[in-house]
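Handoff note, outgoing to incoming analyst
You'll be picking up this chain. Sequence as last confirmed:
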Amino acid sequence: MTGRSTGQAIWSTADLFGFVDGFNLAVEYQGKNESSRGINKQNGDGVGISALYSLENFTLGTAYSNSDRTDAQIAQGKTQPGLYASGSKAEMWITGIKYDSDSLYMAAIYGESRNMTPFGSGYIADKTQNFEAVTQYIFNNGLKPSLAYLQSTANSQNSGKNVDIVKYIDIGATWDLSKNIAVLVEYKINLINSSDYTKSVKISTDDIIVTGINYTF
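Most recent structure output, in case you need it:
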């Protein structure tokens, strides 16, 4: 329920049935999917709920989801303890805040997950703590520089150790040349040091530079 998926039913209401301006609520049910999907894309029956409250330039949000895991996922975890979660439930909660004005955007989120966050070469973490913060400023000439920090720390129930599976600073900029064309550049500074562990599970430790041109029809 945290990305593109199938077999969903979603109910939502804006302004809480008209009683509270700016308060939006959604409830989701997702049916079991396991037949022909890769093991990491399988899921059992699950439910989720999310809420957003907006007041002027600020928005507060929170979400929670809980799904059964498939027999194949649980069995895989028992053959790879410490690398592939073996819990029977995939669970997640997250909360965040956003400020958005004509020229300034700032946001931060924190969340935790159980038995659902992928890392490395197809593994699933037992537990993760996730944090993300981003800010962007929009100049009158169409230049939009941004700065972000992301970190996801996994905890193995088998070893009890905490390991960063994602940790980087992202520096980027987008420049709108016209209503249809924008150029972008992004530099990801990876803060995870290379080690025998990162190599064995294939956690990326490389810095990445991305450039591109977007054309909007």
